[in-house]
Amino acid sequence: MIQTSATFNAALQIAQQGVTLLAKWADPQLANKCPRLIDDNIVTKAKQILFWNDQHELNTLRLLFDHVKLDKGQDKQYYWQPKAIENSNPTIPYPQLEAATDFSNLKTEIKSAIDHLNDDDWQNLSLLTLIIEKFGSFLSLGESDVALVDIAKTTAAVAAAIANNSNATELNLIAGDLSGIQKFIYTISSDGALKSLRARSFYLELVIEEVVQQLLIGLKLPRTNIIYAGGGNLYILADGTENTKKTVEQVREQFNEWLLKEFEGKVFLALDCLKFSIADIATAMSTHWSDATTQLGVYKYRKFANQISKFTEPRDSHEPCGVCHRDDVETLKPLNPNEPNSALACGTCCRMFRLGGRMFGIKVIIRSPREDIKDKLDTLSFEISGTKVYYHLFQKWKQIVPDSDTALLVNDWTLEHYQFKNFRNAFPLLLGNYGQQSQEESDEVEGTIGFMRAGEMAQQAKGIKRVGYLRMDVDRLGQIFAEGLGRKQTLPRLAGLSRQMSYFFKVYLNSLAKKRQENFLDNCKNNNIGVLNNAECLTAGERKNLLFIYSGGDDLFVSGAWNEIVEFAFDVYQCFRAYTGYNPDISLSAGISIDNAKSPLYHAASVSGEAEKAAKANGRDSLGLFGQVFKWDEWLGIKDTNIIDFEIKQYLHPETKPNLLGILPFVKRLEQQNIGVNYSRNFVRNLLITAQIQEEALKKFEEDKQSKEALGTRYYLHLPKIAYTLARLPKYVLDDSDFRTSLKSPYNAPYFRAIATWIELLNR
């Protein structure tokens, strides 16, 4: 990429101003070490468009999520605590109800970082951008809910977009969507599936990265013009000329030719640009954001329209690949050469299997036109229009790769790494990549050891030896971006929403899985109002037997020991709710499947996906688990009876709310009481029988579930059987009056099957 262009210089000037602002705020004496900055016409106009006033000062940052309103809206005000992003595995930041007044620690860190910059560093756009991100993600500039990093990066993007025409009145928003991801990732056989799935997810991240690279190179834009890229989507700000449209069309056609050849049409790139008024950037940007996304639907409905002749050409069919089942490959090879009777697979599946065994501990990915590089973990290549480019993967960050043009440092905010003289265009790559290393002997080429396998995770499970699969995503995310911010729909705020969502799913969840104590359990004991103070968990152990198959901009797919997956789901939900300030319009829905380690993974993915759909159909903010669907609060334990339907509460009156209400409180109490295997089995059996009787009886009332007879069946039919069940528990359990009276309460009648199933699996 040309780094002496007008677009690069415009972005560089904005980045220099952002870092200078941090320097002067931290210590006015640092101003003497900053370059002398004079705004040219481009910089002046870009700052005017974004309302960046040189008189604005850095201050406490309001929580942007507070301004999201769909049905209910937020009734509190939260603030981020001023801090720098840690070099690696940053802890989850939780907003507080009180604004911070002490910035001394952050100022000290900023002073130390900027004090050591030399003249070359001030010309390093990558480094300056990272400094702004590292120290300016929790500080506001101008408006109280706009972070310095978001105003600086969007201003730099505008400056680069108008660098060649300061009189421009229109810009283009480029939007891209890689469709068919689910088909590519999930519809594979069980042979090497877990390993291959993780690799396929990662590979698609690099596909989007290469699309971005091709666009930036073609349009001569710096990386600051990426508003968002990841999870199969991208948004880039570009100039409003016809050249942008032509470049977008060219990249779209070239990539789809390659995708058709590489994946037999399973994956398709929808890519287009939308022209809009430059004045809307700071006023009404979400409409254009939504329109650009909607416009992609035209291409999705006409997939490979320009390559349609390729589908009609006669071709020979061959033996299907044993993994993805494609039959257009003439020569298949053993998926695992070291395993007798290994499935025969196509080249793509063999590469994914190999990559899955070599991904553990990736620190840096370097893009280069050269293939012959030493000491690499693996290499992925793309051949677009006859030109090959290679992505080399390394376990050590400090690498020298001839002719490289981009270095992607995985979840890395160490400033020194971005000052490495042999890196060009070094940027952090956010990647949800948590996983434990396999303890089994390597069966991989060259003795590499990859991520823990399904069988290993099952063996680590408590109770029944099974693997769990969790699928989870943000409810109504499209609506949040399109409508949630109301009149605050500016580009910096939309960029801020994207950034904060990506950070949670791609960065903070890694830290939650790796350091549960620090990110979750310690905060449960924290008495600060509003910070996980009401969080619940079954056990206080670490949750390390997990593998992130995919964790993107707003969703995730994670496998692991079944009991840890269940608890991890509860952790994620509660952390996300705290992270978003408990805004009632921002929630998650999820589905969990539990399966034998050798069951086809595509089946587990399908079952967990169906459970997630059922959770969405339950009014969202729900979890599908054990074949049951309830609101998260019902699973975790209901503290506020307002979530119970008003008519139900009226019917149950004058019944009082029991002390234990919901599913987790009973499971937790029984686990703590350690009632013994025989008692546990009897209890579970009777509870399941009770649930079965209820469910069979309720089938008569499908058409009128709110009739008094139906409600009586649902909430009181259990009493005789529950009395019988309680009478057969140990005396020390019966002495627990909360447990005894709460179990008999009609409020808990809907939860018997879920309670019994959970206890049964824990004690199998």
Describe the structure.
By secondary structure, this protein is α+β, with helices and mostly antiparallel strands. The chain has 4 domains: 6-161, no CATH class; 170-342 and 366-429, no CATH class; 357-361 and 433-477 and 489-636, Alpha-Beta Plaits, CATH 3.30.70.270; 640-764, no CATH class. Helices cover 43% and strands 15% of the residues. The chain is built from 27 helices and 20 strands. The strands form 5 sheets. It has a 6-stranded mixed β-sheet with strand order 16-17-15-18-19-20. A 5-stranded mixed β-sheet has the order 11-12-10-13-14. Strand 11 (378-384) and strand 12 form a beta hairpin. The chain is globular. It starts with 5 loop residues before the first helix and ends with a helix. Residues 443-447 have low confidence and may be disordered.
Keyword list:
five-stranded mixed beta sheet; Alpha-Beta Plaits; 27 helices; globular; 764 residues; six-stranded mixed beta sheet; 4 domains; single chain; alpha+beta
Helices and strands in order, then pairings?
Blueprint: H1 6-26, H2 41-49, E1 58-60, H3 104-115, H4 125-136, E2 139-141, E3 143-147, H5 148-161, E4 170-179, H6 181-186, H7 193-219, E5 226-230, E6 233-239, H8 242-263, E7 268-277, H9 285-301, H10 308-312, E8 333-334, E9 344-345, H11 347-356, E10 364-368, E11 378-384, E12 387-394, E13 406-410, H12 415-418, E14 426-429, H13 454-459, E15 467-474, H14 477-484, H15 491-514, H16 516-524, E16 546-551, E17 555-561, H17 562-579, E18 588-595, H18 601-617, E19 622-625, E20 628-631, H19 632-636, H20 646-652, H21 664-673, H22 677-698, H23 708-716, H24 719-727, H25 731-734, H26 737-744, H27 752-763
